[in-house]
Structure formats: structure tokens, C-alpha cells
Specification:
- The protein is of the alpha/beta class.
- Strand 5 and strand 6 form a beta hairpin.
- Helix 9 crosses helix 11.
- The longest helix has 18 residues.
Amino acid sequence: MRKFRILAVAMSAVLVLAACGPSEEDGDGAGDGDFAGETVSVLAVWGGAELESFEAMVAPWEEETGAVVEVESTRDIDAVLQQRVEGGTPPDLAGLPGPGVMAQFARDGALKPLPQEVQDVLNDQYDPGWAVAGTVDDELVGVFIKTALKGLIWYNPAQFEAAGYTVPADWDGLTALVDQMAADGTTPWGIGLESGAATGWPGTDWIEDFVLRQSGPEVYDQWVNGELAWSSPEITEAFEAFALWASDEQYVFGGPSTELGTAFGNGGDCMFSDPPGCYLHHQASFMGGEAGFFETNFPEVAVQGETYDFFVMPGIEFEGVTSAGDLFGMFNDTPAAQSLISYLVTAEAQQIWVERGGALSANKEVAADVYPDEAGRKSAEALTGAETVRFDASDMMPAEMGAAFLEAIVNTVQSPDDLSSILETLDGVQESAYGG
């Protein structure tokens, strides 16, 4: 996904070789064909530890089938994938920039429908929303190799205890806590919106969480599909809720200018200062855990459960969580490619990456106790146990709409009084982007 891929560290092309031939026994969900001597090409954004985890993930499939998985990593997967497809040399499997791009590839005939085995695993082991996010015109064409949970509110338990604050039980409790923090003289929220060309994306996560929790999944889906105007009462309400905190220096650390200039990975840094510059940070599951931003930014200070922890953003009128993930599709419909992508969604394959850290699995059969840290376990339980799960809205929208959404976040933070005109502009983009 566009936002989620920002976290990947690019590497040059690598080969993952398997020395063993296929197993004589059937593996639980692993490749079941004899593909000795065959190669499955994979184009992805992963590098470093992420690439090593994917290599570990596919190794059992290679051993069982005798095939070789050849992985090429690139930062600019959007351009490289488009070039390969247009040139008639697409990879067998590839990471997809997002559901919107996925839909275009599928309707152009470049992206192939996934085998029934994949649908069967999704039906049995995943929340229905994951199959919906990977379906175009009633055909499943995309699956999520790993995921992240959005809508988490991170806090520093040590700082909370020192100030006499407690984790709120519901939405009213959160708003009362935020107001109390501001009245006590410390800005409640740390927010970082800077992310290069994607500046503003953490703000889109706020809007998505508000839409789902204020107006429910049906409204959320209508909005994603371009069937609900941005100037509608429901979307206006979500922007107003975000602007109430994000555009007011009383509520956000450093005020709007600091917020816009702070990198997303540093948005919660103010929780670790003494005295604290903020108490709360709204961001995804990748902030915590052994491979998270907190541990990286503050290796001597960040300790799970002691100086950082999280609670899920409470429901307002509706319960639910938002998520993101690394979406994959099949561009060459070969038996080996079918076998590999069918294997990747199984609990067996998913558990391999999960145990290594840095990823969540949406597969409900991956037990929480296999996660290497408490942050991962809690995130996984919240994701798989949620009443409603919806995928990141801006990543599902057409690229033109997503880009306008980013710009609207920046404009809202800078000029909240202009919200009506900002949303009217988005209405115009919606008409164009959705072909209306």
C-alpha cells in the first residue's frame, strides 16, 4: 500500500535458491506440485529484515516443490511494475501499490484471478473484509501477505502514572482525558504528517477512523467507492473531529506548523521527553515492538509496557478497526505461481514471518502467542478479534482521489475555517477520479 510501503527499505535484486527437491509428503497448505527446475519471479518493495523474512517464509515451499523463488526489490514498484506490464514481461507475482491500482490492472487483463485454493483459505481463516478488499468485479485478484493495524493510540504508561491519568474506557472518556491534559498545560497529541510526496497520510488515517467509528461500515464503503460526497454530513463530521485537535496548538505538540514538518515516524517522540511534550500518539502497529519506531528512536528509553503501550481508538457510534497491508497479485497464471500464492496465505506461511517480528497476520489461525513481543500480540488480537475490519480507505481509492485526500489533510490543518471549500474541491476530484 502506498502508505504502508513507505516503511520498506529497498534493496537490489536478490535470488533465493532452494537446494532440496520436493518432499514426498504433503505439507499443510504448502505447494503440492512438482516444480523442480522452475522459477517463480516476485517483484516486491521489501529489503533488509523484511526481505529476509519473506525468504524464510517461502523456503518451506521451495523445499517441498523444488522450485526457486527469485525476488527483485525496488523502491519504485509503481513505475517498475507498470513498465514490466506494458512491456509484456511482468513478474509472476508482485506487490501491488494499492487496491485502486489493483483494480485497474485487473480490468486491463494484466492481473489474473487467483485460484480457488486461495479463496477457500480466505473463507475459512480470514475476516470477510480481506477478500472484499482483494476482489474486483466479483473476482479475487489480490491477497495480503502481511498487515498492520491502524487506529491505535500510543501512550507512555510511566508518564501517565506520574500525571495521574488512566486509560479511557470509551470515547467520552478519551475526549474528557484530552481536555484534561490540555487544561493541565501539556498538549495531548503528538502528530507527525511529513512523509515526502505522501505528506499528510497519517491524517487520512484519522479521517478513516472517524468515518468508521462515527458513521459505520456501510457509510465507509460508500465513501471508498465514490458513492458518498466528501461534503456529505458524515465525511464533514469526520474532518471536523480531526481538525478540532490537529489544527489547534492547544491540542497538538508544537502546533500545526510543527505537525506538518515532523516526519511520521517521529510523531510520538514527544511522549518520551521529560517533562513530556505530549501524552498521546495516534498511529499504526508498526510504531511499537522490537522492530518499531519507538525502539529505534529511543533504544535506551523505549520499553514495552513501561514507557510505551497502546489502546485501540474507542468506538463512537460504531465499533471497528482499520488496517493496511502488503497486497500481492498474480500476473502470470502458471501452476507454480498459483501454488506459491496459495501457500502464502496459509497459517503455516504467515506464522513464519510473524515469529520473526515486524508484521501482523490477518489469518485467524495464527496464534497470538507466536508473536515475539507484547505489542505484536496485542495488535494481532485486536485485529483478528475486531467486530468490523475495514481496509485503509485512501489506498483503496483511485490514485487521483488519494492524492487529493493528502492535500486536503494539509489544507485542513493549515486552514480549518476553509473546510467547506476543501471538501467541495474533493467532490470535484471525486467526480473526475471515479469517472462520474
